[in-house]
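step: validate -> pass
step: tokenize input -> pass
step: predict -> running
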Amino acid sequence: MDALRGLALVMMYVDHIPEDLLNRFTMRNAGFADAAEIFVLLAGYASWLAYGRKIPKDGLWTVTKRVWHRCWKIYLFQMGLVLISLLSIYQWRRFWVLPVDFLEPELAHGYSIARESWRLLSLDALPSNLNILPLYIILLGGFPLFYLLIKRRWWLALGVSALIWLGVNIDPWFNFPNWLDPDGWFFNPFAWQFLFTIGIFGSIVAGKHDGNFPAIPWLKWGMGLYLLFSFFEAFPWEYWGLPDLRLLHVPVPAKAYLSPLRLLDVVAIFYLVQSSPWAKRFSEGKIGQFLALYGRHSLEVFSLSTVFDLWGRLMFASWGEIWILQFVVNCIGVSILYFLALHLDKKKNRAKEKAKLKVSHS
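step: predict -> pass
step: emit ->
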């Protein structure tokens, strides 16, 4: 799971810079879904491992306090990202001309920030590219209540979640307000909660089968064929100068409220990966462990990558898409993210060793 989440983090970093040459090779070019769906689904998967399994032992209230403490930490990271983004853009504009779409018009001038800062603090205003952590706060914050529903009737929990998602797809107006966007939050929490829920149930099922999904041949074939269809429909044939091989010319499925085609795409990927012995061997190999390092520290890696994304877009906008900037953004940027994850991993391991020593001496 950590390897897949690490891969999603790297792809999200690349995808958030439109001028980056590497975003031609990320999963959004090979299907309806992209790395954001993987990230949210695995967030649900990890929430059960980190919190759901511990409630019977530690108690609901104790675990709930841990969940809300985590939400508070994510909120602080969100506020830090907002502050860094605003300061970076304002300072950059002192030296180089930027189009207004680097910041919503309502926040493009300093006086708007002073007057409307409460909107940023209350998550009523979500600048573009800073909207996935607020979604995570909402989904994770509601986990204890959802746990109670699961324990009472698991099928009822899954059914209610699916009905809410279906209702939003029928009428997308049902959303949280966003002062910067009349359509509301880009990642509609009422739709995306279903993907988070699927991740939770995926974690429960995998836990009953040694961390994997049962490999059902007909289901694997069906999922594989759907992903093949998704690839032909989503691949940018014209961009690569190739003949258009789309069969149905399906319009791009809506991401904001997680349309069915996107949902099925990410669920198919998730099932095939979690039911494949090859995927497990890959995750245990050198490349898999390299990616898992990013995945184990997803909040910190994602937050720093968001800052690098912004700086990369600023550099490309002002200086062009030259090769040296491509090198800085991709090679140096990904390397710094790796060393951050490596540092955090060593720090975590040292803390575990100290805890073991205390227990052994007591």
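step: describe -> The mean pLDDT is 91.
step: cleanup -> pass
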